DNA sequence: TATGAATGAGCCTTCATTCAT
DNA sequence: AATGAATGAAGGCTCATTCAT
């Protein structure tokens, strides 16, 4: 019984990500998601109270996944630069590998830009990252005058854009030459 | 016969940008846009053949505007760095000043990421910029191994993100300290 | 001025018959009729008060035309059989030659079957025919016990159906062998 | 789960026939049919994929019914004339008894006159009848030179028209004097 | 007179959600 | 728990008609 439920929930999750990211939230009908998951539309309401709640739950989960993906392999003992370089590569690979999920997540963030509650919840995903920033500022490897937001902008915004170009086919991963690209970003946040 | 009211067209444009950028394309109803513009829903169809065509027309116009805004004040005689710095500030100011328009434009680009025709049309907006890149590589002020896409990513992606944080209230324009921020971006694309 | 008006009215008439008979009354938009006639939709309202009135006017005119076509070449002096034979052929040729008009007329009659006022108006088209029936009953060439309706049914209903089959391509005019076909109908109304 | 209510389907069928036959296909709105059936408009789409499909489905069923009604009580052993006389009466009674259904069926046939596919499908309803024609030609009771279409025109077209006049109130069933009327039709197809 | 602009009303259809089994 | 049936609300769009020139 329990196993079956979990499987269904997972199937539902995957189907929702797939459909939402393909057609947008408003463009995706519960019926389509249900069909994709091999369920009846009514069954979805056993697991989620509403379409919006499903979407919110999805995004929450996506945030967790992305956050975890970025910090994968990062250890306490690493130097700040080494750790950030690792998250940088992780992010690029996550976007390239799970583009649908990433786009869905980003779409959500852009859409709710002005909603402070949602924004605050979003911050949680970056605590690990921000901790690295704190350490970097403390040990002199990062410019102390740059805020978390500024650091993230300088370090990671180019990564996101490069990754998107890889997905869009305008660049290949080799052309992106990750270490050099990271080095350039790093240069822009040095003290 | 009654004559087409130019004011009406403009009201419609503004209303559509506002509503589309707030709720997304699928999430925006013709009725809502009409209400926002103070028109009857049917009247919209005097100006646009369909909702999709309206959206496409809007985005085309927005692209023109953004492109023009970025190149405002840029002269042939300027040094590459000076010119790019100007476009950089222009972009930040455009995003901050016309955030709805920018968001709508970006929404379109993200959504049609994989549509090559749409992508090609999008490139047209950046020819002025890419010409500057060419000159910069030629005169040694830009790293010659960086492609147009890479240059844009390193130089402008942080600008976009910083501007968004200003709009979102996480940063003020002063905190963003534009010249320093630009200098950091510039550093990341130096040879 | 006058000439121009008449031409427009005629163009409008022809366009309306064409469009109505092709798409049905409800399926035909004023805009389409206007386009077909090379006019603006608004101009139609100079000539007709409403779509329904236009349709009614059309049907009236069509009734007149069909009535005149049926009686074409019929003379007072003719024997009843000769006269009816003539109207019989005339009817077949009218349906085959002006099928669109005929269908439109018939459609109207079927649709308003229960409307007595409309039905009464329709009777007017047949006064010439019914006069022939009266003479035929009087001179013994037609069965006196058959009412106008019955006579029309036995004599003309087969003609209509045969004509339709010619139009539909299931019969050619030769196969229909008009004189024999009429003779058979005639046989069925003999005393 | 809730189970499909067979009563509902029937109510829908009757309502659709009623409304379609009164206002035509284009003139009938889904909302009106739903109201007539005591359902929500959306419920109609549980039973039919679209308005057009509903109409086609209806007509198919109507054709089956009319066909069955005409051949009711006809036996292999009957003489051709006896069998045809029976179908003749059956047809008149069907039209008088189920006028709405008949009108709708006819409406469809007239409207799709030129569509061969639809026409072919329509022929299926008459195979039983045409088989009687074949036998009649073979045993010398019907004029051998008359095609199926011609026979049907001479025999049945008057029946249809008489029945319509009964429905319209211009004739009563007695006035129509069925046996005499049939005898007249029969006379017109004799060899 | 003639007409493009404008619109209220309505249409077909979809959809998120609830119901009943 | 699971689901097909049912539906109120809404959506995009069309259209007959009127307006204003």
Report on this structure.
- The structure is a homotetramer of 191-residue chains.
- With 191 residues, chain A is mostly helical.
- Chain A folds into two domains: 1-48, Homeodomain-like (Arc Repressor Mutant, subunit A, Orthogonal Bundle), CATH 1.10.10; 50-189, Tetracycline Repressor, domain 2 (Orthogonal Bundle), CATH 1.10.357.10.
- The first copy, chain A, has eleven helices and no strands.
- In chain A, helix 5 packs antiparallel against helix 8, helix 5 runs parallel beside helix 9 and helix 9 (148-168) packs antiparallel against helix 11 (178-189).
- Chains in contact: A-B, C-D.
- Chain A binds chain B through residues 23-27, 103, 106-107, 110-111, 113-114, 119, 147, 149-150, 152-154, 157-158, 160-162, 164-165, 167-168, 170-171, 175-176, 181, 184-185, 187-189, and chain B through 23-27, 103, 106-107, 110-111, 113-114, 119, 147, 149-150, 152-154, 157-158, 160-162, 164-165, 167-168, 170-171, 175-176, 181, 184-185, 187-189.
- The structure holds a DNA duplex (21 and 21 nucleotides).
